[in-house]
Predict the 3D structure of the following.
Amino acid sequence: QMQLVESGGGLVQAGGSLRLSCAASGRTFSNYAMHWFRQAPGKEREFAAAINWSGSSTYYADFVKGRFTASRDNAKNTMYLQMNSLKPEDTAVYYCAAGTYNGARMYYWGNGTLVTVSS
């Protein structure tokens, strides 16, 4: 089993920035692509960003392109999501997941961290 723990969420004003972290343990972190998902109140969970095992390749949902950046440090078993130019509609619980790069399989999930963006 792999344990994933998100942190870094909180309350921020619109236009501000936050950096989320996802710390992994229990399995070889570099064996997995990593993903960020989010779930806004009353909505379905949706994909936000993905990063391959080495960090050399990423892709993003259209709604975060140019504002969010995923990165990882395999030596620290940690993935990050730098979120800039935040909007109230970015308010959600953000989850990290370990799986395949194409998103076909997610093997492990964290419990999420809440991001609230005030207008």
